[in-house]
Amino acid sequence: MADAGGAVVVEEPDFSADYVASTVPALAADGDRLRAMSEAASGLVPADADDRLARIIAETAR
Known about the structure:
Helix content: 55-70%
Number of helices: 3
Structural class: mainly alpha
Order of helices and strands: HHH
Number of domains: 1
């Protein structure tokens, strides 16, 4: 996902409240970048992935 441009990867040692505070607001305000990330991600994940996952979980729980 990240290689395609649809996600941002943060290594665990770097992930902190300070990282989030310094990164997320700018990302959330950058509509062009969010649209580009959305387009990149949409080609990688089936549109009904959430329904498929829910069905698998429900069937497994039976």
